[in-house]
Amino acid sequence: MYCSVILRGAVRETDRQYTYKIPEDLEGKVVPGSFCNVPFGFGNKTRTAVVMSVSENAGDGIKGIKEIRNLILDYPVLTQDLLSLVDTLSERFNCTKGDVIELMVPSCVENHKVPTEVFVEIVDKKTAEDVLASGILRSAVHANILEYLLKCGKCSRKELQAAVSASSAQVKAVEEKGLIRFTKEVSESVESSDLLDDVPVDGKFSETYDLNDEQKEAVRKIVGENGEVVSGTHLLFGITGSGKTEVYLKCAQTVIDGGGTVLYLVPEISLTPQTISWIKGRLGGVVAVLHSRLTDRQRFSQWEMIRNGRAKVVVAPRSGIFAPAENIKLIIIDEEHDGSYKSESHPRYSAKDIARMRANKNGAALILGSATPSIESFYAANKKVYDLIELKSRARTAAKLPEIVPVDMKEQIKLGAGDILSIPLRQAMAVAFSQKKQVLLFLNRRGYARTLVCEDCGKPVSCVNCSVGMTLHNNRRTGSQSLICHYCGYMINASEAQCSFCGCRHFTKAGFGTQQLETLLHEVFPHEKVLRMDQDTTITPGAHREIIERFARKEASILIGTQMIAKGLDFPDCTVVGVLGADLMISASSYKASERAFQLITQAAGRAGRGDDPGKVFIQSYDPENPLFRYACTQDYRAFYDTEIAYREKMNLPPFKAIGDLTLSLEDESALQERGRDLYHYLSDFLSYQDKSFGFELYGPVPAVIYELRGKYRLTFMIKASNKSAINAVFRHVMEDFDHVRYPLSYDNDPSG
């Protein structure tokens, strides 16, 4: 017997199927989807691979066939529907089949039999504290590594890297400085249920609610009268607080009762605690959770629950779309408009695209839920490609849409209120506190102030490695201030800043962030407890859940944060919401900037008045007459959509045309310009010969939005075409005709998606 395999993580030179002989003792055990070790290359180096097919014959003309070495697991790691998608995803997302296998088979499966894990600990606590206090570290990540270990103690390297978003090279660099050390220890197995033991399931999480007529009709359209799912894509368009979660749970219960499996995707890890509580409290049974902060052993335990069918519900962010579940009958994508469902690193896959493929393979229903659907999704629903289901009223009859109050910050500054908290917002907060209610303040920016601006020339302090402004932060340990580049992690003391344009050392603060807002709140409302939820305060495991639960228990009256708090969270006693710095959201360079600003403002506003008391939302802006704010104020998604879709059509933007980006990155700027010209001539000539029906348009090369990033200069080409397939065809020709070492290119057929 013989089998054909694809190497996990194969590069383009080795990205094809290889034939291996199946040893006699493994005949009958090796099946499509099996995960095995194989000898590869002249040195017979052991590589992991997935079996794609099994046959009795090797094929004509094949000699010197090697045997596979062993099976890593006794059962297949991939389901039939995942196996059938390998080629499709490779072509769709311009990556190797080995890249697809790597997405589908996580590293925890490859390494799960190793009984040891690498742990990290501080060598000397006093030395580490002195190093942090001195400010000599030039990497924010290095400082975060020491901060985390000082606070949490020894932990696995996997946990550390996930908690502080560090690479293995960055952790190694701190080890080489003699500040931390590595040890190998036996890693205790974590039972799956342990991960959910401290998730609250009582109270509102286990309470059942009677569905209103709109919700009942939505459930009927998705699971039918007899409990059989209505396959296809359903866009569940419901205003904030309309009870979309109740529809999800009722549909999920029906599917589980019928023996099916549910994939429940959420956009951010901050949503996971409440989502797990709703699911476990209402659906019971076994719930598997997949997210980036699990250790390898925890992740494998969850993955194995899914693979052996014990988990009937899988809760996960984007990567959960590759969960090896059988008999999938319902896929839920909550907050479907969220950009985190699109990977911004290679392979640049879209979880929504893959969800549609898996739903089609399994005859499943796919629910895309949102109060502010993406323009593309709503367009598809209007064209009857998706089934549009609307929830037009709030689920709780006492809950009404909040009153929206636009605030002109130009006038507030003239009145002496400053540029952070307007007088109307302060007054509303004071009233809420007197009534024992809570306040949520949303600012799509972390940091103490946005940056420092040169007093002489007006230029911001820029990173020496990246052409972006650096962000001013408070040092939690020393009380001093540091400037940090959020792209490469470079860090200096604020006192050392020097203008790279004119050499001046005199700066003024520009903008404000969550830390500065927190400081002001302590001054204005000294008796009110403040919680802050942003990337800086959530680096430790469970920090998201702890902050959410503390606010839900009313241990604090004010919650401030970035987009983590804008979506999906439910606090019935929150009656006042402030959206601060609304103008900053529209100033991004993406063609989706207005769409995302409208979505974030609407979602943030939706956190107010979700209980029995009316809510009020204040949108602070220097341009309150902007139509976008008017639409957000009236919660008028359709008016915004009509304006935005007209703009998209006029500019030939998605959904009317597809867009693809080619980005060339090189350390040598002159070489970048030279090779950029080579690419331009190639692309312009190639596209000029194509059939006009493809509608090709070429723009660029232009400097990338962040021209210099991590020591490399970047040029971008944008291609418009009638569809993604046409763009992918161009990408494939470029891959074939240009050496990837001399021309290091990245490909994205859905930029800003």
Describe this structure in words.
- The protein is of the alpha/beta class.
- Helix content is 33%, strand content 23%.
- It has 24 helices and 30 strands.
- The strands form seven sheets. It has a seven-stranded parallel beta sheet, with helices on both faces.
- Helix 5 packs antiparallel against helix 6.
Compose a concise summary of this entry:
Helix content is 33%, strand content 23%.
Structural descriptors:
seven-stranded parallel β-sheet, six-stranded parallel β-sheet, 23% strand, alpha/beta, 33% helix, 30 strands
**Which radius of gyration do the C-alpha atoms yield?**
27 Å
Averaged pLDDT: 85
Largest sheet: spatial strand order: 11-12-10-13-14-9-15
Q: Which shape, going by the Cα principal axes? A: globular
**Tally of helical segments:** 24
Low-confidence stretches: 189-194
N-to-C span: 45 Å
Strand-residue proportion: 15-25%
Find the structural class using helix and strand composition.
alpha/beta
Q: Could you give the count of β-strands?
A: 30
Report on the biggest sheet.
Answer: 7 strands, parallel
Helical content band? 25-40%
